[in-house]
Design goal:
globular; mainly alpha; Putative membrane protein; membrane; two-stranded antiparallel sheet; transmembrane helix; 5 helices; Phage_holin_4_2; transmembrane
């Protein structure tokens, strides 16, 4: 159940980031698909990337995390968003991020929305 709540929270956060940051676009395929399924697919990829790739990157960048007092986490989150973009752009259901600084702004929005929604729904904690 926690995974499904985390997936919905990530979907909301990604959708808000796409609405608020001009360089982040969600590509919907031509046809009769709902935009909800596209955002849920992107959130699924983002959740899997955050579950498997992000801990390894955090471990490898531990000296930078300590040196910057955790602010390097924002860069790691931006890189995870760029990786999600790179993975999903090969499908019709993808997210495109124009550059690194766009990814930083998107990661900041996603992090804040995740923080707020996880505080509202405490069962989403890992």
């Amino acid at each position: 159940m926690s995974f499904l709540i985390r997936l919905v929270i990530n979907a909301v956060a990604i959708w808000l980031a796409a609405q608020w940051v001009s360089g982040i676009d969600i590509a919907t395929p031509s046809g009769d698909y709902s935009g909800l399924w596209v955002v849920l697919f992107i959130a699924l990829v983002f959740t899997v990337v955050n579950a498997f790739v992000k801990p390894l990157v955090q471990l490898l960048s531990l000296p930078l995390l300590i040196l910057t007092l955790g602010l390097f986490t924002l860069v790691i989150n931006a890189l995870m968003l760029l990786l999600t973009s790179w993975i999903t752009e090969s499908t019709d259901w993808g997210i495109s991020v124009e550059g690194f600084w766009t990814a930083v702004w998107g990661a900041l929005i996603i992090s804040v929305v995740n923080f707020v929604l996880t505080a509202v729904f405490p069962s989403a904690k890992r």
